[in-house]
Design a protein that fits this description.
single chain; about 300 residues; alpha+beta; Alpha-Beta Plaits; 3-stranded antiparallel β-sheet; 7 helices
Length: about 300
């Protein structure tokens, strides 16, 4: 049995080596390797007598000409591409700024609504409502807890020599594992980089970005959790903590857990609720062909006979 406490848990971090990783591991095709071995042994090429003919020379010149034309065309279009790219980046930054401003305004309006609602409700009812909002993630909460910090490792040190623990960058499944094990350790409220988690929150990849709900988050990643005093000890023994320590040891990724006093976690955005509605039954003619009252009329919505 291995002495490594995380040996049985390393498979939790899902990562599949890509084509480039395999290429770096085995850069030389077996056929070329055999030809190189034969040349080293005999001191001559594997196919003696091969020479460059006129046709081959013309092909080489033609390929060089086409490469030069393609290079000139690419460099000529580069300023336009750079300008378009910078324009898109500026639009994204502007939209992000507008979104942040609207989110701040929404928070202000929510606070005003809460004040008006608490003034209209009684003391016990307002306290019960606040407890429900805190439990569902729709209310701001404060308290002591734990902060788990993850930082990407140095670039270029992916899994070539890291066994099966995956890349040196934080991936979405790392945040999923940390959040799930914090819930299991007794957390009452969790936020990732200020994005509050609820029962309907998702943590996923979108291209190269990690999304928490619909908001992208970037490193360093801080998973803040409010809970009982025993939460840190229970989390330290969890599967994700053991896995991330192994990843940090092998790839250079930074992983740390610390206690935090008086944490403040924001409220999650208001969910968009959907309500089920009864299907509308087809209406039946109120009278028969002979003018008498029909027997198959639609019932009234209330079901009463008044």
């Amino acid at each position: 049995m291995s002495d490594d406490p995380g040996a049985g848990r390393r498979g939790a971090r899902v990562f599949t080596p890509d084509f480039l990783t395999e290429l770096f591991r085995n850069p030389l095709d077996p056929g070329y390797a055999d030809a190189a071995a034969q040349r080293a042994k005999t001191g001559r090429p594997a196919r003696p007598g091969w020479s460059v003919g006129p046709v081959s020379l013309v092909v080489v010149v033609l390929l060089g000409f086409l490469g030069a034309v393609a290079y000139r065309q690419t460099t000529a279009e580069e300023p336009g591409r750079a300008q378009a790219r910078s324009g898109l980046v500026a639009q994204i930054q502007q939209r992000q700024s507008d979104t942040d401003a609207m989110s701040a305004r929404a928070d202000e309006l929510r606070e005003e609504v809460n004040r008006q609602r608490e003034a209209a409700l009684g003391g016990s009812q307002a306290a019960q409502l606040r407890n429900l909002e805190a439990g569902t993630g729709l209310g701001k909460v404060r308290g002591d807890g734990v902060v788990v910090r993850l930082v990407d490792g140095p670039s270029g040190q992916d899994s070539l020599n890291a066994g099966n623990v995956g890349p040196s960058q934080v991936i979405y499944s790392d945040l999923q594992g940390v959040a799930n094990d914090l819930w299991g350790a007794g957390a009452e409220a969790i936020a990732i980089n200020g994005e509050r988690l609820t029962a309907t929150s998702t943590i996923r990849f979108a291209g190269q970005a990690i999304l928490v709900g619909i908001r992208p988050v970037t490193g360093p990643y801080e998973v803040s959790a409010i809970g009982p005093g025993s939460m840190r000890k229970r989390y330290e023994a969890s599967r994700s903590a053991l896995t991330m320590r192994k990843v940090a040891q092998d790839t250079g990724l930074s992983f740390a857990v610390r206690d935090a006093d008086n944490l403040t976690l924001p409220a999650a955005p208001e969910p968009r609720l959907r309500y089920a509605e009864p299907a509308v039954s087809p209406s039946v003619s109120p009278s028969g062909r002979d003018g008498s009252s029909g027997s198959g009329t639609s019932p009234s919505p209330s079901g009463g006979g008044r």
